[in-house]
Each structure stands twice: as structure tokens, then as C-alpha cells.
Write a structure and sequence with these properties.
Length: 195
């Protein structure tokens, strides 16, 4: 069922899910060490620019993001090569944290994978459209509509309750921008294939 090639093709979501789960099991101390905190990043703790996206507010937040990751991967995994997906994930992660650092100076701390998920979703849709799958334009329009809602009205109703804390909607925007830029830089696959 799972051979080496399958594991390689799906290494991004499997690795992210494993890391997020293990970090959630490690508890609050690990979350505090890895979360985005502007002062600590400015003091040289640059790992927080990436690690913040792997820790969460609690189990409900973790599970909600992992379900989103599974959905996004199911929709778009064939849009790019495995290596490109890893790079898109990193670019989206840095876009979230650097966007918060530069454009949200009053934000003290941040955790969660949702900004990266928005980057992966947008990248997957853009990649699919670039390879000729125009049906994904509907999904891209839907995520753009969601981002516009969040920027004008705020978080979707109920999302803070589901996450177990406030939703930093700007992280979604920054991640989506990072994913869109990465998707334009990388060549999409013409069909689903292994690396």
C-alpha cells in the first residue's frame, strides 16, 4: 500500500502532520520555545520564523489545521513536484512570519499552520490553472473571497472557537501571497508524476 515512492510523493503532508502532532504532544513549554515572538526573532532566534507554523494553540487547533492540510493535499498534490512543494511550503512559512514581523509590529506572538495552508492552497490552485485545469479557478476565487472577507470583516464566524483562540487573519493573507508568488516561479507538473 505505502511503498517508498508513495512516501516520497507525500512526504510534505506526512512530515508536517508528524511534526505538528509530536510538538503538540510536547506541550506548552515547547510551544513557547518555538512560537513566533517578534522580540525574540529580532534578538536572533530566527528559527521561530519557521517553527511558529508547526505549533498550535491546542489539540483542536492542531487537528483543524491537519484536516485542512489533508484536504489541500488531496486537491492539489499533483500540481508541483515534491521538491517544489517543499519550497512553496518554506516560502509561505517565511511570508507569514516576515509579513507579521514587518507589517504587524504590535503582534506579540503567533502560532499555527493556517497561513502556510493558505499559501499551499493558492499555490496548488494557481499551478493547476497554469497547467490547464481551469476548474480550479473556482477554488482560487473562493479563497480570494475568503481572504477579502477576513481583511474587511474579520475571521470567519466560529473559527476562533474552533481554533481555541484568536485568529490572526493577516497570516492567511501573507501565506497566500507567498504561495501565489512561489506558484508563479515554479513550473507546474503537466500530469501527476513522481519525482
Amino acid at each position: 500500500m505505502f511503498n517508498r515512492q508513495t512516501l516520497k510523493q507525500h512526504s510534505l503532508p506526512l512530515t508536517l502532520a508528524l511534526m505538528a502532532t509530536l510538538l503538540a504532544m510536547a506541550g506548552d513549554g515547547m510551544t513557547e520555545l518555538l512560537r513566533y515572538q517578534a522580540d525574540e526573532v529580532k534578538a536572533g532566534e530566527i528559527w521561530r520564523l519557521v517553527s511558529a507554523n508547526l505549533v498550535h494553540l491546542g489539540w483542536s487547533h492542531t487537528l483543524m489545521n491537519l484536516l485542512g492540510l489533508g484536504l489541500i493535499w488531496g486537491l492539489f498534490w499533483g500540481s508541483f513536484s515534491n521538491l517544489n512543494w517543499w519550497l512553496i511550503s518554506l516560502i509561505s512559512s517565511l511570508a507569514v512570519s516576515l509579513g507579521l514581523l514587518l507589517l504587524n509590529p504590535d503582534l506579540i506572538w503567533y502560532v499555527g499552520l493556517s497561513g502556510v495552508l493558505h499559501g499551499l492552497f493558492v499555490a496548488g490552485a494557481v499551478g493547476a490553472i497554469r497547467r490547464g485545469d481551469n476548474r480550479e479557478a473556482i477554488l482560487l476565487a473562493a479563497i480570494v473571497g475568503k481572504l477579502l472577507w477576513e481583511q474587511s470583516v474579520g475571521a470567519l464566524p466560529g473559527s476562533a472557537d474552533m481554533a481555541g483562540g484568536p485568529v490572526i487573519v493577516d497570516s492567511h493573507l501573507y501565506g497566500a501571497i507567498g504561495g501565489a508568488l512561489a506558484a508563479l516561479f515554479f513550473r507546474p507538473q503537466l500530469w501527476c508524476q513522481a519525482d
